[in-house]
Design brief:
Length: about 140
């Protein structure tokens, strides 16, 4: 890992705070739009990119390890409109398939990943101004 020391930490923090202020806040209860969901697989890692009309910050995840196949579930809170594929195969050693569904009556959008292994995986979530990146690695 290449770690770079901040030359001026206060300046970098100020710049990050200003960038965060530019992220628009959407009205409460507004229907949000998910543009696309895609998966990129490499050795022992799958990156799921959830592209949205803005930041995705309110979500939860849980494993269903007793299911066959075991699953990783991510629920994104809110009302969502999605126009992409609802199922996609993933060519990886960790995930075989991803399915998504709108549950607007319960105010969440669900992403379900069918897993090929039952343990040893850690999901990492990276939020940004354009959505959410879910990294699953062994």
């Amino acid at each position: 890992i290449d770690v770079k020391k901040a030359e001026d930490p206060k300046k970098e923090i100020d710049e990050a705070e200003k960038a965060a202020e530019k992220i628009p806040e959407l009205p409460v209860g507004a229907v949000r739009r998910l543009k696309n969901i895609k998966a990129n697989a490499s050795d022992n890692t799958v990156e799921i990119i959830v592209s949205a009309d803005g930041p995705v910050r309110d979500y939860k995840n849980f494993f269903l390890l007793k299911e066959s196949p075991p699953k990783l579930v991510v629920d994104i809170k809110g009302k969502w409109k999605y126009g992409g594929k609802y199922t996609m195969d993933v060519n990886s050693d960790l995930i075989s398939k991803i399915r998504v569904a709108e549950h607007n009556e319960k105010e969440f959008f669900r992403i379900v990943m069918d897993l090929k292994v039952r343990e040893g995986m850690t999901p990492v979530f990276n939020e940004d101004a354009k959505g959410l990146v879910i990294i699953v690695k062994k």
